[in-house]
Design brief:
The structure is a single chain. The chain has 78 residues and is mostly helical. The protein has one domain. It contains 4 helices and no strands. The radius of gyration is 13 Å and the shape is elongated. The model has no long low-confidence stretch (mean pLDDT 95).
Length: 78
């Protein structure tokens, strides 16, 4: 699992604004299909009906991104 406090510390060392958080989170989300699936399953996330017709890997990656974003922002703004 990711140490969010360490990620925020590294982010703040490189950026003096919260303007680039989205890009920072993008860099944390897995890229390869196997890694996406493993991370998704480890996080026990689910796919809802709103994802019908979308590529499964994209839905999984987006759900991971949402959780990562929330966790990062909780650590950043606390």
């Amino acid at each position: 699992m990711i140490d969010w406090e360490a990620e925020v510390k590294e982010y703040k060392e490189n950026h003096d604004t919260d303007e680039y958080i989205h890009e920072w989170i993008d860099s944390l989300v897995p890229v390869y299909y196997g890694d996406i699936i493993n991370t998704f399953n480890d996080m026990t996330l689910v796919i809802g009906e709103d994802a019908v017709g979308l590529p499964i890997w994209r839905v999984m990656a987006f759900r991971i991104w949402e959780v990562y974003h929330e966790e990062f922002c909780n650590a950043y703004y606390s």
